Amino acid sequence: MVMLRPFLLIFDTIYGPRQDILNYLDTRPEIKNWYAFMPTAIIVISDCQAPQIAALFRQRFPGRQFMITEVPRGENDGWLNKNVWDFINNPQSTGRWL
How many C-beta atoms surround the C-beta of residue 49 within 10 A? Predict the structure, then answer.
């Protein structure tokens, strides 16, 4: 069984809109799901490690500042909508990429 994990992707908006990133994520089978919950933050669901996701991002968006980090279960806190926390705490694939 493949273990899916949530990652937080934060990025600048100097080199283009968030929609460019979302469109790219939709083309990558490594990205099983995503949730854009703030203007410069996306929760990404993947079975990859952070360096692999970062490499994909660098390949498509060279020069764009970003950070990707795993969101470890039970080791995070904040004030977010319940839907966001549910997405983080129960990472699932859309089923698009098998």
Answer: 13
Task: Transcribe 10-70 into DSSP letters.
Answer: EE-STTS-HHHHHHHHTT-TTEEEEEEEETTEEEEEESS-HHHHHHHHHHHSTT--EEEEE
Q: What domains are defined for the chain?
A: 5-89 (3.30.70)
- At residue 87, the 3 state secondary structure works out as helix
Kindly state the tokens that stand for 75.
């080791």
Q: In 3D, which of 2, 76, 5 has the Cα closest to residue 45?
A: 5
The answer to whether 64 and 15 are in contact (CB under 8 A) is yes
Q: pLDDT for 10-22, tens place per residue?
A: 999 998 999 999 9
Report how far residue 91's alpha carbon sits from residue 45's, in angstroms, rounded to the nearest whole number: 6
